[in-house]
Amino acid sequence: MASYGSKILKWFDDRYGVKDDWSRQVDQIVPAHATKWYYCLGGLTFMMICIEVISGVLLMFYYKPSVKEAYDSVRFISTSVPFGWLVRSVHHWGANLTVIFILLHMLRIWFTGQYKNPRELSWVSGVFLLVIVFGFSFTGYLLPWDQLAYWATTVGSEITGAVPPAPLGHAILMLLRGGETVSGDTLTRFFAIHVAVLPLMVMLFMGAHFAMIRRQGIGGGY
Amino acid sequence: MLNYFAVALSALVVAWPLLRFVFPPKKSSTASDWVQVASTSEVPPLTAKSSLGTKDQPILVINVGTTPEENKYVALSKVCTHLACLVDYKKSDIECPCHGGKFDLDGGVISGPPPRPLQKYLVQVRQDKIFVGGPVSG
User: Which chain B residues are within 8 Å of A60, Cβ to Cβ?
Assistant: First the structure.
């Protein structure tokens, strides 16, 4: 196994000189203070997001974002598609766990004081990631298009309408709902945000988040 | 060796459901034109039974006959035409628990917010079994 792996690596290295870049990423030494369990929470969050991406793409194989078909397609996934109940449940509970892990990760950063100089921007990008994940939760909640989804989105989006001054709040509300009320236009809009806009943003901010950690190393240990 | 086996096994445990998921399921062969919903003994006159019709639509089978000799069955969608709550049979009418809509035993609106009558479905009695078919248009 190992020899196959190194042969493949050598093949690429002969042509593209990838060995240094590869080992710089893979052969990282984890500092001793960072091997406690609570230093895993950020990594767990990343793992959950990977699971959400995989299960989410799979759900998109069968999900249909229209008023007529959304509910029935979700029901079809849960009742007729082999292991559809499993994939949907993994996506649902994974979403809950993602938020929980992020909050625990934040607590760890807070109590080990790692938001301080020189890691201010790691914290800031992390807060952006938290908001993005809340965006995922809010938009994803509408997609099953059942009574719970409909009214939760009605109530949730109504909040933006209270932003002063009134014309601004109303403009944000219209932007979010795509109309005066939650309708099929809201559904397609939320679907686009959920599967295209937010994934791009989460990749961007996670990339920055990880690049800063790689450059500065894992803090703490004091 | 045992490690490779464990890795292969866990990969299989994850891959198998995912592989099954991406292959489309067979269109269910039970989606026939008529579905047996009850036997006649379950629905004596002036009672009703909730069941699932074709395409698993929730339906209400009502015996609107008034004497044991005179059985007449009506099948109505349980989905209220107002906001899609499930209606219930209440002796002389059908009521929606959400916003108080009332329908007569033929599905017509008596009072409340529902904008349209309940959808009717075809009913057939074969021997002592009640079957429900597709929606009645108009």
Answer: none
Enclosing domain of residue A94: 33-216
Which region holds residue A200: left if phi is over 0, alpha if psi is between -120 and 50, else beta? alpha
User: For chain A, how many structural domains are there in total?
Assistant: 1
Q: Indicate if ipTM > 0.85.
A: no
Residue A1 lies in a domain: no
Which candidate from B4, B25, B84 shows the least CB-CB separation from A81? B25
pTM: 0.74
Instruction: Return the residue matching tokens 């959920």.
Output: A194
All domains of chain B in start order, with CATH: 35-135 (2.102.10.10)
The SS3 assignment for A148 reads helix
**In whole angstroms, what is the distance from residue A74 CA to residue A80 CA?**
10
Domain assignment of residue A24, yes or no: no
Share of chain B above pLDDT 70, in %: 95
State yes or no: pLDDT of A152 exceeds 70. Answer: yes
CB within 8 Å: B17 and A80:
no
- Residue A43 located in a structural domain: yes
